[in-house]
Specification:
Layout (H helix, E strand, L loop, with lengths): L1 H14 L1 H65 L8 H32 L2 H27 L4 H28 L4 H4 L1
Helix pairs in contact: 2-3, 2-5, 3-4, 4-5
Keywords: Membrane, Transmembrane, Transmembrane helix
Amino acid sequence: MEKKEEKSILAKTIRSESFVEKIILLFATAIISGFLIPYVTNEIQRTRLKNEIILQAQSKLLDDASKTLITYETLLADISWFKTSVAYDTARHQKAFEKYSEDAVSLLSQWRVESLKARNLTSPKISADLDSFQMKMFRLQDTPMNQLHKNNGSVTEWEKQHIINIKMLTEANSLVIQLAKDMNITKNSIE
């Protein structure tokens, strides 16, 4: 008789709503822990990896663009500096002009590549600013300086050009700072 009662209790328990709910919860938990948790974990890891890759690319862009822009602008400032009344030195001016002439093509190529990368790694504004700064450099520096050099410009003309070159160097520095801020690669963003 005890066995019959045990079977009857077991049968009642199996048929009860709470038992069915508990079994459903048990299967749901197994499914969630077996499939959903690993999926979510993988998605989190994939997102972290993607963010790390983007951050590395942005850091490289910042390093490369900084080097290219500041080098380019410094080369231009050197040319005009040695034709000012303060530092007048024709031989060093010629040497600076030749150095610029040698390096300009590769620096411009790098600048263009960095501008293309910026389209994917920065805001549209910063990307456009990099492009427009290059056009401004041609208009205010490269073309006028080649003309001054070709026409053997006066000290006064070179001094005016040097003022423009220093302003452009300052603007290049600001552009690099804006690039870092745009990509959130600053000392303040790390803290």
